[in-house]
Every structure is written in C-alpha cells, then in structure tokens.
Structures
1.
Amino acid sequence: MDIELMVTSFPKLLSAAVVTLKLLSVSLIIGLFIGLLFAILRINRNIFINKFAYGYSYVFRGTPLLVQIFIIYFGLGQIEYLRSTFLWVILKEPYWCAIIAFALNTGAYTSEILRSAFQTIKPGIIEAGKSLGLSNKIIFYKIQIPIAIRQSLPAYGNEIILMMKGTSLASTVTLMDLTGVAKYIISTTFKPIEVFIVAGGIYLFMTFIIHNVIKFLEKKYSFSN
Amino acid sequence: MELLAFGNTGWGDELFYATLMTIAVSITAMLIGFSFAAIFTPLKISKNKLLNFVANSYTTVIRGVPELLVIYLFFFGGTGAVMFVASIFGYNEYIEINAFITGAFAIGIISGAYSTEVFRGAVQSIDKGQFEAAKVLGLSKFAQFFKIILPQVLRLAIPNLSNVWQITLKDTSLISVTGLVEIMRQSYIAAGSTRDPLFFYSFAAVLYLILTYLSMKLINRLEVRYSRGY
C-alpha cells in the first residue's frame, strides 16, 4: 500500500471532483427542464405528441450513455452544415458535448419519473381544485406540479446518484473529471488500488451527501406536516 | 448501406460478431453477478452484525462508485494481482489476462451488487408463514429452500432483475475501453477507418435498442411463466 501516493494524489483528485460536480449540476438543471417538458408531453392526449415523447425516452433509456456521448461528440461534427452554424461553437467543445449528452440522458429518465408521479395524483385532488373554481392553469402549476415533485423526490434522488456516476464517461471525450484524473494517475503510476480507494472514497462521500440532502427534502416536504 | 455489407468490403459481419460478443459478455456478467448475489444476499439478511456490515459495504461501495472506475481498477489491477499470485509460485513472466474475463468480472461485480439488493427485497417480502409452513411440513432444509422459497423469490425478483439486466447490458459498452471487441469497440474501429462516426455510432445505438427490446420481450414471457397460479 503506497500511502504517500494516496496523500499526494488526494488534492489532484479533489480538484477534479469539482469538474465532476460542475458537469453534474449543469446537466441536472438542463435535464430537469427537458424532463418536465417531456413528462407534460407524455400526459398529452394527442397521440403523435405522446408517441414522440415516448420515443425520446425509449431511445435514451435503451442505449448506453457512452453511445450517446460518442454520437454527439464524434458524430455531429461530421455534418458539414452544422459546422457552418453557430451551433458549432458549442459542439466543438467536449465539455458542452458531454453536458448535452448527460442532459438528454437524465432528461429521459426524469420525464419517466415525473410522468409516473403525475399519473399517481388522485383525480379527487384535481376535482377539488376545480370545485374551488381554480383555472386549469392554476390547478396545473399550483397543485399538480408541486405534488408531482414531492412524489418523485425518492426516485429523482436515485437518478442524481446514477447521473453522478454517469459523468465519469466525460473522461472518454478527453475531459479531466474525477475518473479521468484517476485513470491518468493509475496509468502513470500503475497503482490502481490506492487511486481507486481515494477516488472511490470521494465519489462515495458525494453519494452520501446527495442521499442525505434528498432525505432531508423528503422529510421537509412530506404530506404529514 | 454498402458500409454494412458482409465480407471484406463492409462492416456487417464484424458488427454481427461484435453483437454476439456483447450478448456473451452480458450473460457471463449477469451469471457472475448472480453468484455474487447468492453469496451476499444471505449475508445481508443474516442477523449477524459483522456479516451485515460486509454485505452492506459491498453493495454501497459498488453502487456509489462509477462503473468506469471499477473497470479501470480491474483492467489495471487484474494483471498485477494475477502476476503477484503467480510470482508466489515462482512464475515471473508477464501474464496478460483475457479482456473478456476482466470485463465480464468487472461488470459482474457491479451487476451482483444490484442483484443482491433485488434478491434481498424479494426474500424479505415473502410471508413469514411460508418459512414456518415449510418447516412444519418436515421438509429438509434443501427442499425448503429450493421447493418453497426460491420459486416465490424468483416470481417477485424477475421484474426488478429485468432492470438489472438492462443496466448490465448497457454497462458492457464500457468494457470497450479495455479493448474487447464488442459493439462499441467495433463501431469505434469502423468509425475510425471509414471516417463516418455518425453512421456507425448511430448504428451501434440501434443494435443496443434491438437488444434491449428483444430481451424485454423474453423477460416478459419469463414473468408470465413464473406467475402461474397467481
């Protein structure tokens, strides 16, 4: 066991964890909007809109995240037309390609979580809103969305942790996130176990924090108080 | 379309074999995962605190650390570990372990952590009366487990195991970083030599979609089979 390597690599891995957290938070925020949008499309009665939203979530949940990143990072650059538009400014950066892939991926899972939350809201609650004379818009924004968000907190907490693990794939498109730096240190020192303990420890710590924040939010927004 | 031709001119046959490789790695990893679950599920539900701790650390660590990091640990660490054991027996040459075995093992350990949680949930949701009834009938421990408990556990576990299977199948794409030629690696090679990454990665996505779709169909049939009588 090389304790010295563990001590010297700790600050390097810690600063790489900041990159991981940045990737995670930006893609979660964008993904949440995408997820909410597609969840609303999913409960739409129009069959085309409905099928389109289902197709999106099916494709992104049925293929590995690695394929999605590679299509966006290596694939889209091949389209000549895209290179001439302003989109190219974003698509030539591995950082933004990774974020687009992560956001679309977590958006698909989030839309499923929110959809099932919308569908489990009891019709009586909506009827109660109607009999109070509230408009459909207010019922949706003030009753359905808050209940759905509370309902989906536990599942969304899992999704955050899965996404945190997913950000490790950013290292495959040259980004130096926690896994990327860990791999670099492993391949230069050939001490995989030591590096794994430190990097894995940082990941576990982040999982622990996320888990407890979600637990706290669940308690805070539980129906009983 | 000529890019997908079979034979020397296209990538059809290469991608076909790569798909078979993905299926083979996924099944092997899933089975390795089951054997881990068979060891850790009893530890998880045991009343012994120490055994509980061991099983909980396994599932918590594996489920809290990225799959890619676990794969790197096995990829870089596997050779070292095997060579260390070999050096004890006096063999000091360089040993290269098969990418298939390393990959299947790494994914298997991950899949095992998820399977353990599924089996734990299933065992715990079986009514206590079933265990007692099996005992009262005077069945041997072996018969109690295999004839009474296991069929019920499987019925409850199959829907969640199907999720574990989907995760495992998609995780195998990560083994491509170790050089094993499965769908992802083959697409990478094809994309590199034809300079058409958009086509090949999209095709890889389609292959994965077909695999997840077909396995869903198959698992649904299993589910029906194991819920006979309910």
2.
Amino acid sequence: MALLDVNHLDVRFALRRGDVQALRDVSFSLERGERLGIVGESGAGKSVAAFSLLNLIAKPGYIAGGSIQFDGRELTQMSDRALRHVRGHRMSMIFQDPMMTLNPVLSIGEQMVECLKAHRRISNREARAIALNKLEQVQIPSPAARLDQYPHELSGGMRQRVIIAIALLLDPDIIIADEPTTALDVTIQAEIMALLLELCEKHNVGLILITHDLGVVSQVTQRMLVMYAGRVIEQGPTREIINDPQHPYTQGLINALPQMATPGSRLNQIPGSMPSLDNLPSGCAFHPRCGFVQRADGSTRRACIDEVPGFVTSGNCRVACHMVAEMLERERIPAEEIR
Amino acid sequence: MSSTVQAPDQAPETAAPLLEIRGLEKHFSLSGDFLEQLKFKRGRLVREQQYVHAINGVDLDIQRGEALCVVGESGCGKSTVARTVMGLLHPSAGEIRYDGQRIDELSHKAMMPYRRRMQMIFQNPYASLNPRMTIQQTLEEPIRLHHPDWSSQRIKEQVAEVMASVGIAADWGARYGHEFSGGQRQRIAIARALVVDPEFIVADEPISALDVSIQAQVLNLLMEAQQQRNLTYLFITHDLAVVEHFGTRVAVMYLGRVCEVAPTATLFARPRHPYTQALMSAIPRLEDDRPQHIRLEGEVPTPVNLPSGCVFHGRCPHANERCRREIPVLIATIDGGQVACHAVEEGRID
C-alpha cells in the first residue's frame, strides 16, 4: 500500500449563497520517496488539494467526502491532537511566500528550536545543534551566524532555504511545497529547486510539488496530476504526459508555451478562461474551450456536453476525456477483428 | 575569440533610432530630508546620504518597429528604465531622446504630445484600472485628454474601433473593472494604451500576473497590434521564454547596467556574457529531467553599495583582477550584439 492514498476527495466551501465545490472526486497516491507534481492554473484547486492533505483548509471550507490514508491511518477522521503530530513531523509544508511563513519577531534559531521542542522532548542545546545541522544541509553560508538573525535580514532565496531547513527539521516522510519558487527570480529558483530535489533524493523524502510551471515539474517530479476546475483531468508519469499529453487541456497548456512555437509566430492559445467554481459548465468542465467537442466529420460529441467524463487508461496515464475514450475504443475494435 | 571584437563606435546604424538612451542614471535617496541626514560621528556633526543606485549608466537604442526586450532579475533596474523613459521618474543623469528630441527635461506641457505618442501598459491589471470608472469611461479618458477638440461621436467611434480590434465585446463598456478576470483586464489596459494611436509602447511585465493559457492570448494580442499599427515596443520582463518568442532584440540587465544587447536569435544561440549564460541555463525547460543550471556564487549584491569594477564580478566564475577594478563597457561583436565583459573582450571566454 502506498504511503499516501487519497480517494474520491471532495472539498466544499460553505458560502451564504450555497456550497461551492472546490475539489471533486480527487484521487491519487504517493509512494515513499516519490515526487509528485500537481499542475494547473489559478482556481484549478491545486492548493486546496495540498492543504486538505493536512486538513489545513480554513472555514468555511471543509472536507465533504472521500478519504486520505497516510501510512495506514485515516487523516480525515483524526482528532486535532493526533493531526498535530502528523503536521510538521511526518508531513511538512513549504508555502509560496517565504516572508509570510517566517515569524518576523523571532530569530531563525528561535523558530527552529520552537518547532523541534513542540514535537520532541529535547534540550535547547540539542535543538540548536539539530537546527544548525539542517541549515548546513540547505547550504546556507555561515549557518551558525544565521541562527541569531531575523527573517528581514535575509534575502528571499535565503529565507526559502531557511524554510526548507525548517520543513526538514523533524525528518518528515513527505514535504508538500506550494509554489515554493514563484516569488523568486529564475536563477534563485533554479538553485532552490535543485536543492529541494537533492535533499528529497538523499533522505528519501516524498515531495508533492504544486506549481503552474510545467518546466519545473518536468525537472523535478516523477509523476504528475493536471487539474482543471477542481478535478484531476490527467495523471501519470511526468515524462509521458509532457511528451505526449492526451487531454486536450494538457495539450493546450503545453502548446501555449512560447518554447513550443516558432519565435515571432502566433502562440497556440486556449480560447476563453477557466470557469468559476460556482458556475461550472455541464458535462466536461473544459468543453466550452475544447476544440474536440466537434468530431472531425463535423458531428458533435454530445457526451462532452452532457456527461462528466470518467477516467480511461492510455499507456501509463489516466485521462478523463470523452474524446480519448472514443479513440481508445476505436483502436481496440480493429485489434479484436484481426484476431 | 578576440577577433570577434571591434571598436564600439563602428556599429553600422542607418536609420535614426526612435528612442535613444544615453548614460542614463537614476538614484533614489534612502536618507530622508536634510535633518534626517545629520548624524553624530566621533563627536562631530556630519551629513550622510545613502542612495539606491537603480540604474548606473544605461545606453540603449530602440529602432522603429522593433520589440526591444529588457530582461533581468528583480532589482536590476529594468522597471526603472521603463518608468524613466515614460517620464514617470526623472533621471539623475543622462539623456533620453525620442525621435531626435530630448524629452527628459521637457516641461509637463511640452511633454504632452510625446505622452500621446508613447503609452504604457503596467504589470498588474488589478491596480491599473480605476475601479470607479466604467470601461467606456476608462477608454475615453485618454482621448479626451489628448484630443480636446474631438466630438463625442468621434471619440465613441475611436473607442469602438479599438475595442473591436483587441477583442473586447461592445457590451463590456458599461461594466466596471472588477467584473473582469485578469486576462480581460489586461486586454482593457492594452485597449486604453491603443486608443490614442501611439507609435511606441512601454510594457512593464504585462503578462507575468496571468495564467499560462491567458499569457498566450495576451502575447498574441500584443503581436497583432504591433503588425496592424506598426508599433515599437519596449518590453520589460523576467521571462526569457517570452523574450525568445516576442523580442526583436534583447538587453540583459544586471544591477543597473546593461551587460549584453543582441538580436534575439543571436543571444539565444550564443549568449556571451557569463551572467546571460547563467540566466538562460536557469530557465526550466520541458525536455529537462533535472535542473541543469550554471551555479552562481552568492546572491545579487545590494544596489546601495555597488561593487567596484564589473558589477557581476563577485559571482562570476571568470572574474580576475581587472574585473574587480575596471567597469567594462559595451563592445560590439561581429554577430551584431554588444557585450560588456572584460573576459569576452580579452578572449578569455568565447
């Protein structure tokens, strides 16, 4: 059984005008030491998916259904006290903005010691020694001096290194990183991603990386999920999805990148924009923007408009698309006729 | 490859550039007013002033019809260049010439005709649209300002024409900015820049606040507008993938200085400056299985106390004594670019 197993997760936000469903039927799993990317545009639900793993969804949000099994235990039913043991200790989180994550009135050392002592019965001296060791692991120059510095004295890249050190403090099994480098410059981003990858590999730590950057996902992760309007629409090995995306949205996302077009030519844009979650289109949520609702012969694929697509397996990937299902079906028939 | 280097003033340039920037500097005082600058040191009263050196001697030409992209990381001064060119900031030193005429010293009134010819698109479409104006009002305002003699009818026709050309539905006019998504707002901001028929557009990170699929829409729109209206762009961005697609020429900035300028294809085929090389290697590409970047020592120094010599020497793997001492100037290369690097000039790296 996988270390983390998420099944049919539904997350809703109770608003005055009624519930808005932020996640629908999200399922995925993570093996020990595996690196998973969650990709999507803003509003796709990728951050909600990550936050719900640690039950960090703030009211009015709540987990409305489904299960999250971590190391054989059900997280959605766990008491707050038991959850606190998991948070930070077994699974830790890295957020987007390093300035918002660190406490501005505590020195780096104090924050790290505080975190260690909340989970372990150890002395200040031992805690400081562990903190120093972790700062060395994230390759911060003069780590001992950093312990007594405050967050505002560090640059953005340095702060994100401190946060990675804090995430590693208690030797977690999984690190959840929500857009960890979006606020940073490209050269710093490259350094931080390389560091995160190196540490995860060295300590066999699992990584759930939430990002909108397909380049980062292909560099760092082994498997990926693509999300659209609160659903997973495609998942599988990263290399396979990047090289041969099946879902029209994934194809559109990759083809829209400037590197996929000849310089100066028109980019392959996806028309329209992501629907709002409280007013989703019928059937497949992507159908108003999809070029495959019409078949090649001009007929309309009614299922796209009427039915929510289920997953079909294509290669090692799972895709939620009526068009792909139809194509797979067509491929299967001739194979049987030959027999 | 020292044979690739020729004298800096021999770059063949036939047509006069639309915009010339010469020796541009912009410093921001950190020290507050006169009384705040007074400090006691060793029993004596001294006046101390500290500056952020945002731009330190930038020379750039922009030719008619081209899209010059300025790239660099945060704090390199690229936005300050854009704002100084537009007259939103006054340069501390240097000259800006537009169509042969110096514009950095013009009075507000004398600047007005140039403001019509030069328009700006900002990064954040959530902040750049007035929340209390309808889209119609937003788009009419610049016309009323620059063409006070136009009739309402003519203004409405002009707005309708621009709205149609950027793909804004006619019924958006009665609505307010907050009713639109980021991509739609950026479309409106582009329309607002285009209503006065400008020839030159400064776009400061116009797509970095948008999602990937929307970025493509807005970039396409900017390229269409360039073809239809024969526009010249100064395009500020940190995204090199966008530059490769959009730019005719690229200027790479580091710590307030231009370290390399080259035609886009040349720069991407063969980056010469060590910083450009590091920057390009840091772009995560789809075909990569692992990060493949060139590792740089340390971080960008603060622009308050600039390093001596080449601003990049502290992080450069090729730095020597001369780099620490002497500021490199832009030198033309045979493939049409310019690079400010002692190591390239001396042929230590190629």
